[in-house]
Amino acid sequence: MKLRIFGSTRKIKEYYDQSKTLNVLLDNAISIQDFLERVCLVNSHKASSYESLLLMQEACLKSKNLEKELGISADFFTFLKNNEYLFSFFKELSLEKKSINDLKNNDYYASYNEHLEILKEVFDHYLALLKKNHLHDDLSLVKDYLINFDFIDEYDVIIYNLEGFLSKFEEDLFLQIADYKEVILCFRVSRFNYEYFSKFDFLKDMELETEFYYEVSLNEGKILKKEKIYTQNSQIKVKSFEIRSLQCAFAMDEVSHFLREGLKPENIVIITPDESFCDLLRLFDKNNMFNFASGINIKESLFYQKLKILYDSANSESFYYQKQEDYFLNEDTIFDYHNTFLHYLNLDFENFKSQFDQQFNFEQFENLIIQFLENEKQELISIIQKELYFIKELLKNQSLKVKELLQLFFIHISNLNLSYVGGGKVTVMGLLESRGLHFDGVVIVDFNEDVIPKRSINELFLNNEIRKKAGLISYERRENLQRFYYENLIKNAKKVSISYVENEEQRKSRFLDDLDIKYFYEKPNSKTYLDALKLDYQSTRLNLEPIKAPVLKHDPFEKPLSFTRFSLLLNQKRTYYYRYILNLKEARALSYESNFKNEGNFIHKILEIYYKENSKNYFDCSIFNKLLQRESSKYGISDLELEILKIRFENFYKNEQKHFDEGYKVDKLEWPPADLKLPPKVLRFGKESIRLIGVIDRIDYREGENFIIDYKSGKIPIDSYQLAFYQALYDENAQAFFYDLKRMKFTKEKAKSLIDLKESLKNLLDESKEEMEFENKKDNYCPYKLIYKKEVK
């Protein structure tokens, strides 16, 4: 009886599919990962990924110089985000049966060996913690395993179809097994892996040749089978695009060509070196042409989105929750990212926030998670229940905070995928998934230098020279393996199409020329592919011609005139037209920051409250600071911003005291108040008149003299009519100043005079008697710009 070992489950499926075609009984097949778990016995339980993470973090905490010397923090959240570097580094050393001492060399920088000692200390602590907890994982397995002969004895022959590298651990394991059972290694030799295979001790006496398939007996040390590999005379088309999404149209177009030329859809594949391209391609796959082998990432599920927005909101120090039932209907709401999603998904943020820093046992955490699984598909529920089982084991002897548990939870489920249901027969997969598979039609997208070759995170610790001297896999060998995979895909296909993005930031991968394949470059017609991506293309004809400025007769003085309307009439008539004549409300853009973090509004309100409740001619910093502290939480002001405001208002105190020492005192705030119901102020121009309305921030008084103040927390306007407008509104003889709340001083910045204002109002009055062209002098900040400019970017 034979056992066949393959590098991937998809290769196993392809192998078993032969039985349907050939109508024969095939040998048992297993993946290399499953084989290693079955054949290696260890007298301990396998650590869950959660347990491994926490033990590695504990090992890092025991190594005092890790963060100082290597910049690797053992802080819980920071470590969780960066743990992959450590695990990957240690795993590579373990599989290649190398110690950290093998990496030491006095030729490198002075502290190099010291850094390696720190890493060795971390690794030793980690292995000790595993042993202490009666656990093992991939890092410790290499040293502690025994061969499961009961499993081996079920088979007469073990055949391993090798599609990549054979680690030192795997090499030694198969040679050990070969002492008891017949072991056959099957592999293909290319110019990209010839050097690698020629260095194996059990192959060194064999004269290997490139472009041949071999079956070698490890027991007898001889070649059992040698076959020439004949490649297809592939037609290879290459195109470049300025925009990445156009490759979606290219991929669909090439698949259609392949089908029309007789290729079966199940024998066509789209290779995505960067799997994020799948998300893009799925958006355009309206006819369900494709079957996405990797499935759909769990991050796209409603379950994940709900949990993540709650976590992100609760974990943000600056977030302020707007508790209001009419969040979407209230015209004053300016949407921010977190509040918008919390309200849209109808989530109980306050209850979640109250638990966020609490220690939870398993039952509490399970109840929290289960409430988000309502109406989800059974597959997702099963995946989450499996993850909860690992967390249950983790929390047997300890408890963690909710935010810590969720951070762990997100790290582990974020790479999980759900099955893609309802797709077509054309497969979309990554490069590694395609190992050993043959397709008649191959489309490869994103053939760019930033994606191909795929980089290894192990480059963080070891440069190429060190790798070579230590006997680890070099970057060249790793890249050659990727070349080998691409070469097999391309040379075994009848038709191949390759695309890449070419613009100022991206260029094609050097692999395209390294593969030594003949291809023809076809200059793309981007407009054709762009048109192909449009929905309802035949019936859609967009008119993107800008709209001319409207010309019409309008009386802006029919209603009392505010300064905002007056300013728009002077400089932004087009904006005035849409806002006050057509009465169109401005679009409320989705912002990542909360509206209540508007510092200017907060300061205005605090100053109003302070002078209503306290002395009108003295500014007390201690009272003001208490007021800041009291009101800040209502407006989402962070602790840091609060402290900065306290420091800034020390200068405000100095300026105020100087002002009050000159005899002024605060007389009116936010004048006129709404309940006063004063009639508009009337300015007369001969037989005609203009009515003015507005609200002034503050008016101070001194011995028959009024002092008008307008607070400005942002940029002070130059050549503005605003101060003159307030003089006309309240007292033409008053002084008027902007209060610069950044520099904490009174300023005018070349403000227009009252005479200038009246002249400008008179000109507008005359202009309104005829038709007016409603065009902006500058429209950079016009909220209606998209309507009339039609600039789609």
UniProtKB/TrEMBL annotation:
Gene3D superfamilies with a match to the protein in the record: 3.90.320.10, P-loop containing nucleotide triphosphate hydrolases (3.40.50.300)
Assigned keywords, A-Z: Coiled coil
Keyword Transferase carried by entry: no
One Pfam entry name: PDDEXK_1
The keyword Coiled coil is assigned to this record: yes
Domain of life: Bacteria
Coiled coil: 751-778
Domain called PD-(D/E)XK endonuclease-like: residue spans: 561-785
Protein name (record): PD-(D/E)XK endonuclease-like domain-containing protein
Organism the protein comes from: Campylobacter estrildidarum
